[in-house]
Amino acid sequence: MRVATLALLCLSARALVISRTAKFSVISRAMGDFTTTPEERAEAAAMRKTAGASTVAPTVASCAIGQGIQKYVLVQAGDRYFVRGNTRAAYHKDAARPLVDELTAMGVAHEVLGGGRIQADLANKKIAIYGHSIGFPWQGEFRHDLSAAVVAEAYPDAEVTTSNEGY
Which of these, 4, 20, 70, 86, is most buried using a 10 Å CB contact count? Predict the structure, then answer.
C-alpha cells in the first residue's frame, strides 16, 4: 500500500512540474497554483505601455469592477486613471485586455501601473483593494491609494479599504 501511495505521489509531483511549462498551466491551476508562465509574463509586458495621444474620450468609464473577488489593474492614460477588475480573469492581463484594446484602438497612450485584487461586496457597500500582480508588478510603491480614489468616485457610498498584503 505504501509503495502504491508513494508511486502516486511521484506521478502527481511529475505532473505538476510538467504543467508549469504548459502554456496555460492547466494542472497547476486545478491544484490552486496560479503562477504565470514566461509566455504569459511576456504578453503582459507587451501590454504594459504604449505610445500615442494623451487624451481619452470622456465616454470611457474610469472604473469597471464586478461583485466578488477579482483580479484588477490600475491603468494611466494621460492624466486619467482607470481601474478594471474581472472576476473571471485567470491573470491580470485578462482584466487589463479590454481597456488596453479600447485605448489602443483610440490611439491613446497608456501604462498599466500595477494590479492586485479587489473584493467587492456591492450589496453591503464594502470594497477592499489589496495584493499585487505578477504580470504587472508595481514599479516602486504599491498605488492602491490611486485605485481606491477611482473606485470611491465610482461608488461614493461604499467603504473602500486598501492593503498591500495578500495575493
Answer: 86
Domain span at residue 25 reads 2-35
Rounded Cα distance between 56 and 108, Å, is: 7
Q: Among the options 92, 110, 132, 144, which is catalytic?
A: 92
Q: Indicate whether 89 and 141 sit together in one domain.
A: yes
Task: From residue 5, give the alpha-carbon distance in Å to each of 26, 56, 91.
Answer: 23, 59, 34
CATH number of the CATH domain containing 85: 3.50.20.20
Give residue for cell 485584487. Answer: 117
Q: Cα separation of 164 and 58, whole Å?
A: 30
Distance between CA atoms of residues 117 and 59, nearest Å: 25
pLDDT in tens, 147-161: 999 999 999 999 999
**Residue 40 within any structural domain of the chain:** no
92 is catalytic: yes
Name the residue among 73, 94, 84 with its Cα closest to residue 29.
94
The count of structural domains within the chain is 2
Q: Which amino acid is residue 41, in one-letter code?
A: R
Residue 29 sits in the same domain as residue 70: no
